[in-house]
C-alpha cells in the first residue's frame, strides 16, 4: 500500500530551514552579548543555541534523506534516519545541560560583574526570535519526531531567554548577581527534561515498541469483535517512522467466514480509528480444540 508524505515532508523541511536561519542569527547575538556583559545566563543560552544550530542542521539533513524513495534494499524507505537524528539531538541536549550545570554552580561560588541592561535587551530579542521559530515549527511537530525534537530545542531556548530576562532584571533592580547563575541552573534543568523525553521516545521507536498512544489489548479486543473472527494472536504494532505505523497479526476465523472480508474490516478499523495504514493480516482456520470462542491472545 502506498504512502504519500511528500507534502508534509516538504513543509517540515521548509520550516526547519526558517528556524535554522533565525537560530543561527540569535546564537551570534547572544554569544557576543554574553562576552560583552559577562552573563553566564546569556552564554549558557548561546551554548544551547549552538547545539540548536547543529541539531537543526542535522534535522534538516535527516529530513532530506528521509524523503528518498524506498528501494530494494530499504523496503521501508529512509524514514528512521529522522528517528536517529532525534535520538542524537536528545543526547546532545543532555550533554549541554551538564555543561551549563557545572558552569552555573561555579558562578554561584564566584559571582562576576555583569552589565544587566544589554543582557536584558539581548535576552528579549532572543525570546522573540525563539517564539517565532516555535510558531514556525509547531504545525509540523505533531506528525514528525525530528521536527518535534527541533521544537523542543527552540522551546528550551525560549525558556532560557525568560530566565535570562528575570536574572537581568534582578541584577539591574537589586544588584543580586547570583540571579545570573541561578538562571543558568534553571536552563540546565529545562534542557534535561526535553532530553529525557526525546531519548525515551526515540529508543522506544528504534526498539519497535508499541506507539505510546495505542493500547495493544484494546485493539486486540476490537479485532476479535469483528464478525467472523474468533481469535487474534501474534499481534504486533510498531512505528516505522514519524506518523507511519505498521501492524501484523494472525487472525483465526470461525468456520465458513469470508477471509477477504475479514481482512478488509480489520484494515478499515486500524486505518480509520488508529491511523495504522500498513497492515499485514494472515487469516487462519481456528484450531478446533485449542481455540475458545471469544479468545483474545497476543
Task: Provide a descriptive summary of the structure in words.
There is one protein chain. The chain is mainly alpha-helical and 298 residues long. 67% of the residues lie in helices and 11% in strands. It has 2 domains: 201 residues, Cation efflux protein transmembrane domain (Alpha-lytic protease prodomain-like); 70 residues, Dihydrodipicolinate Reductase, domain 2, CATH 3.30.360. The longest helix is centred in the N-terminal third of the chain and has 32 residues. The N terminus and C terminus are likely disordered.
Short description:
This protein has helices at residues 6-37, 40-66, 80-109, 116-141, 145-174, 178-206, 216-224, 259-274; strands spanning 229-241, 244-253, 276-285. With 298 residues, the protein is mainly alpha-helical.
Number of strands: 3
- Calculate the terminal CA-CA distance, rounded to whole Å: 25 Å
Radius of gyration: 25 Å
Class from secondary-structure proportions: mainly alpha
Average predicted local confidence, pLDDT:
81
Categorize the overall geometry.
Answer: elongated
Structure annotation, total helices: 8
Specify the biggest β-sheet: 3 strands, mixed
- The percentage helix is 55-70%
Tally of discrete structural domains: 2
The CATH superfamily of the largest domain bears the name Cation efflux protein transmembrane domain
Poorly predicted segments: 1-6, 288-297
* H and E order: HHHHHHHEEHE
Give the strand content: 5-15%
Based on the structure given, which CATH architecture of the largest domain is correct?
A: Up-down Bundle
Strand order of the largest sheet: 1-2-3
The CATH class of the largest domain turns out to be Mainly Alpha
CATH topology of the largest domain: the name is: Alpha-lytic protease prodomain-like
